[in-house]
Write a structure and sequence with these properties.
The complex is a heterodimer of chains A (287) and B (136).
Chain A (H helix, E strand, L loop, with lengths): L3 E10 L2 E11 L4 E5 L6 H8 L7 E6 L2 E2 L8 E4 L11 H11 L5 H10 L14 H14 L4 E4 L8 H18 L2 E6 L2 H4 L5 E6 L2 E7 H6 L1 E7 L9 E7 L3 E7 L9 E3 L3 H17 L4
Parallel strand pairs in A: 3-8, 3-9, 6-7, 7-8
Antiparallel strand pairs in A: 1-2, 1-4, 4-5, 9-10, 11-13, 11-14, 12-13
Helix pairs in contact in A: 3-4
Chain B lengths: L17 H14 L12 H8 L3 H13 L3 E4 L3 E4 L14 H15 L4 H15 L7
Antiparallel strand pairs in B: 1-2
Helix pairs in contact in B: 1-3, 2-3
Classes of the chains: A alpha/beta (287), B mainly alpha (136).
GO molecular function (chain A): ATP binding; ATP hydrolysis activity
Pfam families (chain A): ABC_tran
Keywords (chain A): ATP-binding, Nucleotide-binding, Transport
Chain lengths: 287, 136
């Protein structure tokens, strides 16, 4: 069953479309990287999937059920601002969360908190570092025993040790329960090692959607004489050019013509190529 | 059951995908005789605990090894090595070629060569004897 799908989803704030015409269906049991620069629409997309924001256009479905006015019971959402009551202790926070959720595993929460070295159960939330707050919020998210885990910038304020602990906890969740995970980040390097699927958004639109290895295998970077570009076959994603030389990112390209070098892109250059293309489109005069 | 037959070392900065690193490390362990038919590969969960990689990546690597006919997944039990890649020439610390290489390397060390010198010599000689175009 498809954990999360979107059909022509858009969200407009006043005259600005934060998300527009997004259509995708995420694969079950995978770890999905939701990547894009700041302001690309990642958080809006996640908040709509969690039922906290209503789309202006189109519809989202979670496990086949339309998302309307609330979080699906099988979904846990880690919001970017980690909303927790600052005057409660960690222990009290866990108790409140237990009372607020119908399906709840206190055992799972304790297990996750136990794996996080820095969390003092007696400390008030407001005394915690940003990283520790994130860790507590992740423990609560897992306490709902989700089948779909939506994490908005889960690693952004973690130190290297907490980052490693957190990734280990999330990956163990995938191994043990087959949970589908969507993690957003504006830093690709954060996610590339642990994700198998990518959803690249920019300017509110989906730019790339697919299995990372498959996406990479469909693209080539060709470098050759700028005067000779017409000899190259394939869909041009983006190009950088000097007076003599052209560097082309191509999708489904034919064989490289003589005089051109040909290589599979790494993830960074692929993402940069698509972002360059989406920027060029949005700054082009509209006819 | 032995769960620590081999442990994967994932280099996150090597530029080689995690999935290929796992495939290569299993193959290499098989060539060196560290993994023999009947041995169980670590479960995805065990690899996650040790390295924090994505369990789907581990399973994908095991599927590739299965496609190559080197291992077999048994439902509920794990993934087992079914083939031997080791030969007398490569397995064990006392394999003759290994001993000869070890002798060569200690000579290199005594001669004051640093690891980069050794790698450069080794790859140059390897290129002469195993040209890229002849490799399968």
């Amino acid at each position: 069953m498809i954990p999360l799908s979107a059909d022509s989803v858009g969200k407009r704030y006043r005259s600005h479309w934060a998300v527009r015409d997004c259509t995708f269906a995420l694969p079950e049991g995978k770890v999905i990287a939701l990547v894009g620069p700041n302001g690309a629409g990642k958080s809006t997309l996640l908040r709509m999937a969690a039922g906290l924001v209503r789309p202006t256009a189109g519809e989202l479905e979670v496990f086949g059920t339309p998302v309307r006015g609330g979080t699906h019971p099988d979904v846990s959402f880690l919001a970017q601002n980690r909303p927790l009551y600052s005057d409660l202790t960690v222990r009290e926070t866990v108790r409140v969360a237990a009372a607020m959720n119908d399906r709840w595993s206190a055992e799972r929460v304790q297990e996750v908190l136990g794996l996080q070295a820095g969390v003092d159960h007696g400390a008030k939330i407001r005394t915690l570092s940003a990283g520790t707050r994130t860790q507590v919020a992740i423990a609560l998210a897992l306490g709902r025993l989700p089948r779909l885990l939506l994490l908005d910038e889960p690693l952004s304020d973690l130190d290297p040790l907490a980052r490693d602990e957190t990734l280990r906890i999330i990956m163990a969740e995938v191994a043990d329960r087959g949970t589908t995970v969507v993690m957003s980040s504006h830093l690709l390097a954060d996610l590339r090692e642990v994700c198998d699927h990518m959803l690249l958004v920019d300017e509110g639109r989906v730019q790339v959607d697919g299995d990372i290895e498959e996406v990479l295998a469909r693209h080539r970077i060709l470098v050759g004489p700028a005067a000779d570009e017409s000899a190259v076959a394939g869909t041009l994603v983006s190009a950088t050019r000097t007076q003599r030389q052209a560097t082309l990112l191509l999708k489904d390209s034919g064989p490289a013509p003589q005089g051109w070098t040909d290589a599979e892109p790494d993830l960074e250059s692929l993402v940069m190529g698509y972002l360059r293309a989406s920027r060029a489109r949005s700054s082009a005069p509209r006819g | 059951m032995l769960t620590d037959v081999i442990e994967f070392r994932i280099d996150r900065h090597s530029g080689v995908s995690t999935y290929m690193q796992i495939v290569h490390q299993v193959e290499q362990a098989m060539r060196l005789g560290l993994l023999a038919p009947g041995d169980r590969l670590p479960s995805a969960r065990e690899v996650v605990d040790a390295t924090a990689v994505n369990p789907n990546t581990v399973l994908k690597a095991y599927r590739e090894l299965e496609r190559e006919g080197l291992v077999e997944g048994r439902r509920g039990l794990g993934t087992f090595v079914t083939k031997s890649l080791a030969s007398e020439a490569t397995a064990g610390d006392d394999a003759p070629l290994r001993k000869e290489l070890a002798r060569w390397m200690s000579l290199a060390r005594e001669g004051g060569l640093v690891v980069e010198d050794v790698d450069a010599l080794y790859s140059a000689v390897r290129e002469e004897h195993y040209p890229v175009e002849e490799r399968s």
